[in-house]
Amino acid sequence: EAQVTQNPRYLITVTGKKLTVTCSQNMNHEYMSWYRQDPGLGLRQIYYSMNVEVTDKGDVPEGYKVSRKEKRNFPLILESPSPNQTSLYFCASSPGTSGRARSEQFFGPGTRLTVL
Amino acid sequence: GQNIDQPTEMTATEGAIVQINCTYQTSGFNGLFWYQQHAGEAPTFLSYNVLDGLEEKGRFSSFLSRSKGYSYLLLKELQMKDSASYLCAVEDSNYQLIWGAGTKLIIKP
């Protein structure tokens, strides 16, 4: 089944404790992206990647890191989480890197993160 | 700045028709997308418009007017399962997706 998977789905942690949220897609997609979703603010892009070893900042990259060492995986790293990073996080992928092929995105199920 | 506006919440009756509006101001335009998101779930793609006019897909239709910076999503024969948030997103000239905050649609029996 074609899908984007994320782990963990739920995570409660404490300020400053490094964490990684994994994202994997089995569709051989070029483009991958991380979003956070907060009430009333809509989806905001954190980082995106057009291909292996190519990553770029989105709208809200501060406090996050990513890597793209393999085409299928795009982990999100919070080196020192803070309470303002409490949010719902989505990973997404799309087959192309421009136009509709890039913007018609397939989303993972989401990771609900709480930082105490 | 770039901005997408859509109503925060709408209520409609099962079996009726509802129109969800979206207006945008972006740096260029390369397409407009509608996504559906059920509570606690991931967004799923609904429709794509790049040229002016109406795109119909079953009970759902999406309209675009580029000159007015305006789109709407029309849902016909509403079903309870259509209760969800509907997200409008515009791809700007840099091929970045700009997202609206979403419209929560409540369907009443």
Q: What topology emerges from the helices and strands here?
A:
The complex is a heterodimer of chains A (116) and B (109).
Chain A: E1 4-7, E2 10-13, E3 19-25, E4 31-38, E5 42-51, E6 54-57, E7 65-66, E8 76-78, E9 87-94, H1 99-103, E10 106-107, E11 111-115
Parallel strand pairs in A: 2-11
Antiparallel strand pairs in A: 1-3, 3-8, 4-5, 4-9, 5-6, 7-8, 9-10, 9-11
Chain B: E1 3-5, E2 9-13, E3 18-25, E4 31-37, E5 44-49, E6 53-57, E7 60-65, E8 70-75, E9 84-91, E10 97-99, E11 103-108
Parallel strand pairs in B: 2-11
Antiparallel strand pairs in B: 1-3, 3-8, 4-5, 4-9, 6-7, 7-8, 9-10, 9-11
Q: What keywords describe this structure?
A:
heterodimer; A: 116 residues; mainly beta; 4-stranded antiparallel beta sheet; 1 helix; 49% strand; B: 109 residues; 6-stranded mixed beta sheet; globular
What does this structure look like?
The complex is a heterodimer of chains A (116) and B (109). With 116 residues, chain A is mainly beta. In chain A, 4% of the residues lie in helices and 49% in strands. Chain A has one helix and eleven strands, in the order E-E-E-E-E-E-E-E-E-H-E-E. Chain A has one helix at 99-103; strands at 4-7, 10-13, 19-25, 31-38, 42-51, 54-57, 65-66, 76-78, 87-94, 106-107, 111-115. The radius of gyration of chain A is 13 Å and the shape is globular. The model of chain A has no long low-confidence stretch (mean pLDDT 94). Chain B has strands at residues 3-5, 9-13, 18-25, 31-37, 44-49, 53-57, 60-65, 70-75, 84-91, 97-99, 103-108. In chain B, strands 2, 4, 5, 9, 10 and 11 form a six-stranded mixed β-sheet that branches. In chain B, strands 1-3-8-7-6 form a five-stranded antiparallel β-sheet, with no helix packed on it. In chain B, a hairpin with a 5-residue loop joins strand 9 and strand 10 (97-99). Chain B is globular and about 40 Å long. The mean pLDDT of chain B is 95. Chain A binds chain B through residues 40-45, 90, 98-100, 102-110, and chain B through 4, 8, 30-31, 33, 40-45, 48, 50, 87, 89, 91, 95-97, 99-102.
